[in-house]
Amino acid sequence: MIDPLSLTEHVKKMVVKVDDVEKRAYFRFRGGRWYGGIATADCIGCNLRCVFCWSWYFRDNAKKGRFYSPVQVYHKLVNIVKRRNYSQVRISGGEPTISRKHLLEVIDLFDRDGILFILETNGILIGYDKSYAKELSRFDNLHVRVSIKGTTAEEFNKLTNASPEAFSMQLKALENLLDEGVSVHPSIMLSFSDERGVRNIIERLRDIDEGLIKEIEEEYVFLYPHVARRLREAGIWPKRAYYPDRIPRELI
Q1: What predicted TM-score, i.e. pTM, was given to this entire model?
Q2: Between vectors from CA 232 to CA 49 and to CA 40, what angle results, nearest 5°?
Q3: Do β-strands 88-92 and 38-43 pair in parallel, antiparallel, or remain unpaired?
Q4: What domain range is 145 assigned to?
């Protein structure tokens, strides 16, 4: 069973390099239709091991990436923004918060330009350390999407192989961010959930803030062949999912 905090330190040694600045390993930069159009930097390394992860191969293979400084990431994404006439950027693929100094410097560069940065995170580190939310609160052009892995601690453990207790850290991240006035919404993986689980997560979110209920983003597995294979090997199968030949155009 994984301890996400210990795994953070292990992964950080492989995907973060400090020279004159803190650099992070990335495996690609791209445009896409998510959020109506966004420039994306896909990073390597995560502190969870979700069985449904679409980027698991790069997530777990640090040698497949290349190290970039915050300024280099900024320029890569700005070029995509200009070329495609986007107004927002994000880091995806792995867990951005692992490289704290690097991430904050990247966000700051876009914040100065007035370009919206969408931070996609599992929230573990923000839930563990409230000062992380405090640091994020200084940015005007930031929105955080906390991706909740399942609807109960037991489901979280099954999907991520992480200790059930870490599930509460994801929810604590929402609380910490709201306390610091950071724009945030929860995205919940519902592909494996039953009605009891859905009721549970709604009540947990209501306990934090009633407004979160209206902001829930429903997240479902994309059954790409490599994802389906891993799910079968794990003996886990979604109740609801997107199939590659039936993915809505806006999600491609």
Answers
A1: 0.92
A2: 45
A3: parallel
A4: 4-251
